[in-house]
Each structure stands twice: as structure tokens, then as C-alpha cells.
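Interim report to the steering committee. The following record documents the input for DUF3341 domain-containing protein (179 residues).
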Amino acid sequence: MSQPPPQGAIAEFTEVDGLIAAVRAARAAGWSRLDAHAPHPVPEAAEALGARAAPVAWIAVAAGIFGAATAYGTEWYLSVHDYPLNVGGRPMDAWPVFLPAAYIVGVLWAAAAALLGMLRLNRLPRLHHPVFQARGFHRASQDRYFLHLSAEDPLFEPEAALEFLRGLAPLRVSVVRAA
């Protein structure tokens, strides 16, 4: 039985400074498809990776405004045109009456859009990734730092990637294969 093709190469570091230096070196060497894994946020690594803020807030604002406008419009249409009901002599289009429900629906739509937008932008749910099979990777949530070079990168050649990672003085280097 043959081995599955490599999905990338991974290097394990014991210190955060080693990871940051490795990410910067990989970027300087021209790697574009790489990722860093750490047990805590590492802003310097994120900056070196070129991470930028996700547009989740804008997605939530747009959905909230759309949801509130839809709720308000629906209430107005139903109260004024479809089923007018004169209560206490108030005008049919008494806008203050429609605001509380429109606000609540807007908040609901914003929250749902923020959740769905975050999941979509993070490509979740992803229950398995080949990097999870890398030797020692379970320590990425405890006390180790990992740099993963993806096989999708145009520079990726298995032996060259391993040699490049070895030059960064990691604790361990290995090939990532699909399980």
C-alpha cells in the first residue's frame, strides 16, 4: 500500500520567538501558503503571516440593518395596508409602535449573520485537517509552536521544504500526510 501524497511540512518550536523568526524567514523566502499554530495569540506571527481583520462586523451591521428594515416594513405594511386596525384613534402608521420589534429582529439578524459569517470566513466546521496527524501536534494547544508549509504553495517540494524547515532550528520537522 502506497503512502498518501504529502499535504505539507511542519516544524515544531519550543519558544514563541523561534516561531516568529520562522514565519518571517518563510515569508522572506517566498512562501505564501503557510500557517502558524500556537497555544495563545501571537500578534507578531499574525502580522508576519499577513493576517488582517475579518469583515464579520460589517456583515453583522448589514444584516442587522436589513433585518430591522424588513421587520419595520412588514409591520408597517400589515398595519397600514393589509390589516388596518384603529386602536384608540392612533394613526395607522404610528412609527414608534413598530420600533421595538424592528430593533429586536435587527439584533437577531445581526447575531445570526455574525455567527454564520465567522464560520464561513474561517471555513468551519472542519472536523479534520491533515496537520492534526503530525507527530506532537496535540501540544499546539499546550506549550508548543508549529509552522506549517502547505503543499498547495507553488514552492512546495517535499525534500526542499523539509530542508528549509531544518535550517530554522526547530525541535522537530516532519511531513504532513492525509490520514
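The mean pLDDT is 93. The committee is asked to note this result when reviewing the revised timeline.
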